[in-house]
Amino acid sequence: MSGVPVLLITANVGSIFEEPGVMLKIWTEEFLSTVSRLDPKFIALHCQEVGGKNYEQSMRHVEDFVRLLMSSEELRLFDKVTVFLDEDFSSAEHFTALGNFYFIHESLKDVLLWDFKEYKFIPVHGKEVHSGNIEAVTTKEKAKFPQDFFPECKWSRKGFLRTRWNISGTIFDLINIHLFHDASNFVAMETFPSVYSKTRRRALEHTLERFHNDQYQTVPYFLFGDFNFRTDTSGVIKKLTEDTHENQLLSKGNISKLQFRNNDENLILTLGKKEFSHHEHRQVFAADGGQWLREYDRELEDFEGRLFEFPVEFVPSYPFEEDINQGSNYMQTRVPAWCDRILLSPTAKLLVENISSGDPVEYGIIGPTTCMGDHKPVYLRAIVSSDADMMEFNRNCDINGESLGNPKEVMCNSNGTATITRYIHIKHADSSVKIFRETTV
Question: How far is the CA of 401 from the CAs of 372, 398, 404, 421, 428, in angstroms?
Fold first, then answer.
């Protein structure tokens, strides 16, 4: 079956702009090395915190970053490039610091990009960079989360940036997302899900609901960015502090640190608002490639059946040391977690699954031993079906004599929620047909 080799990458690049003279080159070399090894024909790079945390001073380095990528030998044959950079930090109600980079190989001729204003696809030609204030650019959809979602009651750079593509006859959305972080270890450890987890879940629910109910036809989507998903902090601490006792350190009447000591009074774990330090920090989180933490990685549980992820067999993507000599060590600030993810809608999963297993999916991190900043980029390399004709059936349509009913059925549940079922017809280039029933609540 024919298909297009695609490479999807999510990267929180904020910290590489803190030392751009050193980090931009290192980061770019690792990225380009991955591109060369995986040999994709379509690359989607979704970045968060473009310009860094001190974006007023470091946003000027973004141009150097773009130039490094677009002038590279490794991307020489990618003759079509479209970039969206949300850089206007003067507009607090709109600024997300998101950056979407798309590189299309010269061998791909049939490439179209959706215009969200004109409701139509337009051909992609040449190299185009949309930067600065991109509110008027109609080939993207961008939004910040509603202000009441922000846990500290102030604007933050959290939101999404969506594009829609028609690649070799197959239509899908690519969505860059940045969700809320954990501000305090003390708050995060109180319960699971924590207040931060609940805010992330609410924002993600809001986003998915928007995509299912907006004015555009529902299509398969790949959702990848910095979800800031964290492990169950309380559960991890309990695991690491078995057979210890707790001491509280006070400052001005408040707890400043918690210390956990064993029966010999050896310090095992120190916990502060922004400190998480195990006495064998490097060893404990390197054990089993960090896979022992997977049982505490639970924030996706609420989206089972709605969002799919390929098996995670790589180490937690955050928080790594920002020292170029400690590329594989974790900072002693937070419990290591898989913040950076690549998720698929059920129909997007079908687009990938219908390809022969002779070219399997690869899901991993870039630069496992190289300093890439506090986040390691996460990538998914897959083959996406060509000419997958996605459409919602007309009312009471049928195939092979089987009636499918209304293409969008709404059923009211006893608890007052509504279950929405869409029947989607996927026709592939080899004329095989699949009926997919997608249900959301």
Answer: 55, 6, 9, 20, 20
Residue with tokens 């950076």: 340
Distant-in-sequence, close-in-space partners of 415: CB < 8 Å, separation ≥ 6: none
Dist CA 317 CA 298 (whole Å):
15
Domain residue spans in the chain?
3-231+279-386, 398-440
Extract the tokens encoding 261.
């000591």
- pLDDT tier for residue 92 given thresholds of 50, 70 and 90: confident
Q: What is d(CA 116, CA 143) in angstroms, rounded to the nearest whole number?
A: 13
Q: To which CATH superfamily is domain 3-231+279-386 assigned?
A: Endonuclease/exonuclease/phosphatase (3.60.10.10)
Whether 26 and 371 have beta carbons less than 8 Å apart is answered as: yes
4 bridge partner residues: 384
φ/ψ (deg, to 5) at 162? -115, 140
Order across the sheet with 254-261: list the strands.
245-251, 254-261, 267-272, 275-278
Cβ atoms within 10 Å, residue 241:
18
CA distances from 361 to 137, 179, 304, 340, 424 (A): 33, 26, 20, 18, 24
Q: What is the pTM of this model?
A: 0.88
Considering only 213-227, 314-328, 418-432, which range has the smallest mean pLDDT? 418-432
Nearest to 351 by CA among 423, 429, 249, 260: 429
- Residue 265 near residue 250 (C-beta atoms within 8 A): no
Measured distance CA(9)–CA(48) in Å, rounded: 11
Residue indicated by tokens 């964290």: 230
